[in-house]
Amino acid sequence: MPSRLPSTRASLPVRVATVAVLLFLHLPLLVILLFAFTTDDTLFRFPPPGLTAQWFAVAWGRPDIWQALFLSLRVAALTTAVALVLGTMAAAAVHRSRFFGRETVSFLVILPIALPGIITGIALRSAISLMNVPFSLWTIVIGHATFCVVVVYNNVLARLRRSSPSLVEASMDLGASSFETFRYIVLPHIATALLAGGMLAFALSFDEIIVTTFTAGQQETLPIWVFNQLTKPRQRPVTNIVALFVIAVTFLPVLLAHRLTAERREVPTRARPGVL
After folding, report:
1. Up-side HSE of residue 109: CA atoms within 13 Å toward CB?
2. Residues 6 or more apart in contact with residue 152 via CB below 8 angstroms
3. pLDDT tens digits along 193-224
4. Count of domains in the chain?
5. How far apart are CA 69 and CA 221, in angstroms?
6. pLDDT tens by residue, 96-105
7. Which domain CATH number covers 255?
């Protein structure tokens, strides 16, 4: 008598708990979406007294929003470039080399993302003030790079550890230079890891606010603009619209990075007679 396969359907308590967790995580985002269309610009009332799309036109015509948006995009792009270079170099050094303190170096590279943002911000601001460096675009980029490097480093190092060293050795044995080996062997292998790490770094940099507060001076990125608008009740619908845009800009890179780094599951097939 054939044995019964265990049911793969989740039990009712598990499904209820899953729905509760999803609502806890994403219900506030739905609130932002709903009140971005409200006709009342003073109070949060549910249900809203009416719905309108006029606030999108108001947000579109605000030059301060555009200035904050362009600054955030420039910072995120430059931070991503710096993180890709430094993170890849650090991952390659830790993976290929054997030296004293190797694990300590790896720990120190990962440490900034584990530290609270306010600690990193205070440390960076103290260093900037000590060196008399004026606040600029580059001080924000340096601050964001401290934790974005970690994202690229982890992605590239994980991919390198899954690669076969025999490919690199065969390339070198065939007379290829170090640059040619990196270009034709290593780079194609880690390309998706670089892309995923770069998109995650861009998303993290674009919506960062704590470290930015300590390194921006009088400059205003888009997350700082949103934070400053919270004290202005009549600007809440416009603030919600900008918040929706920030969510969209960060959601898409994270989704694509997840797709690129997801492991492909191989479904085992039953062998048939006469088929190898």
Report:
1. 23
2. 83, 84, 86, 87, 88, 91, 194, 197, 198, 201
3. 888 888 889 989 998 899 999 998 888 999 99
4. 1
5. 7
6. 777 777 788 8
7. 1.10.3720.10
Q: What pLDDT, in 10s, does the model give residues 44-82? A: 666 666 677 787 888 888 898 899 999 999 999 999 999
List beta partners, residue 51: 38
What secondary structure does DSSP assign to 19-64, as a single string? HHHHHHHHHHHHHHHHHTSBS-SS---SS-S-B-SHHHHHHHT-HH
Q: Which residue has the tokens 């009140």?
A: 35
Tell me the residue type at 247. I
Angle, helices 102-114/137-161, rounded to nearest 10 degrees: 130
162 in a domain, yes or no? yes
Looking at the domain assignment, is residue 223 inside a domain? yes
- Check residue 61 and give its pLDDT: 85
Q: Which two tokens stand for residue 112?
A: 């900034």
Residue with tokens 């490919």, as numbered in its chain: 167
Residues spanned by the domain of 171: 54-261
Tokens of 45: 């009332």
Does residue 150 fall inside a structural domain?
A: yes
Tokens read off for 93: 């050094």
How large is the average pLDDT for residues 245-252? 82
Q: Indicate whether 257 belongs to any domain.
A: yes
pTM of structure: 0.79
Phi then psi for 38, rounded to 5 degrees?
A: -75, 150
Return the structure tokens found at 190: 């880690």
Cβ atoms of 86 and 142 within 8 Å: the answer is no
